[in-house]
Amino acid sequence: MRAHTLQVPAARPAPPPNARATTARPAPAAATPAAYARVISHAFTQAAKSPAEALALAQITPRQLADPRGRITARQLELLSGAAMQALGDEALGAFRRRLPWGSYGMLARASITSADLGLALGRWCRHHGLLTDDLVMRLSTAADAATISIEEHAAHRALPPDAREFSLVHMLRNIHGVASWLIDSRIPLREARFPFSPPAHVAAYRHMFPGQLGFGAAQASIQFDARYLRLPLRRDEAALHQMLQRALPLTVLQYRRDRLLVQQVRQVLRTQADAARNAQGLGALLHMSARTLHRQLRDEGASLQQLKDEVRGERARELLLRTDRPLKQVAAAVGFRSEKSFIRAFRTWTGQSPAAFRDAAREAA
Fold this sequence. Notes:
- There is one protein chain.
- The protein has a six-stranded mixed β-sheet with strand order 1-7-6-8-5-4. A two-stranded antiparallel ribbon has the order 2-3.
- Helices cover 50% and strands 10% of the residues.
- The protein folds into three domains: 20-253, no CATH class; 261-303; 304-366, Homeodomain-like (Arc Repressor Mutant, subunit A, Orthogonal Bundle), CATH 1.10.10.
- By secondary structure, the protein is α+β, with helices and mostly antiparallel strands.
- The longest helix has 23 residues, at 162-184.
- The protein contains 18 helices and eight strands.
- It is elongated, with a radius of gyration of 25 Å.
- It has helices spanning 34-46, 52-57, 62-66, 74-88, 104-112, 118-132, 155-158, 162-184, 206-209, 238-245, 250-253, 262-272, 280-286, 291-300, 305-323, 328-334, 340-351, 355-365, and strands spanning 20-21, 32-33, 71-72, 136-143, 146-153, 190-195, 213-216, 221-226.
């Protein structure tokens, strides 16, 4: 599998190394720091080979490579990475104590694609990666409703030059996140991403690569997301895998429109944080996306925010009518209606009968 290149924006001053909320934004086309190309170029030097041919293939000039603020395109880094992996016979580009022969990550993908669901696939990926190298030990764990993929580093990996260590860890997390999204054909929003180093000069890039909470100076590199994604079935087959392996770059630069858990996530927030999610702006903020993106992604899933609000309100109203003796005015207020009349009108639209008739019929049936 070819290296998954990283799309990033122009560098900005580094923020404090504490966790903070971020929002994903489209990255400019030519925004990948030349620092990543320098890491790959250095891998050639370490192997006593010249990077000149690979740099020429990617049309990266010596001036770009030397410029501390230089930027290249994602396509240029893809070309450079692919050429380097084949020339060096190492998909890890010198980051590990042993080479990873060409096709190593393709083998991991093939070993994972027969899994019944994403959880099994990622578990296999992490275990089988350990057969390739122990320089980075990947683990999938779950706690409560969160799934975490973490990376434990061997001392030799921690001793890499800072830029090479960063590139390796970011690549690994972007790689497995991209593979996971591809396997279930869905966006997987990240709750948080943490890194065991200080914010780099191009830290602004992380808003695009790891939207959600960001933290630096952590004990380990890791990403965290909703554990419910682990239960989703895989939607790719061998034919799709063969096609994907021809050019794996889209796994990390493609932002999936579809989020197969978004409808469930919206329902959950509407149930548990109704006051903060009274409108699309408030709900979007809780889900780390803009109101416009929220509406578009719900539309892609064949749903609408109003429809989901009505469903959640209706479920809550029926529950209160069945399990409590609250007057209709109190039930209406509890589910977000300002007047009893508007609640009765909406309830009749949802169920075909008035709240009082629904309560009476339920009691008679019991």
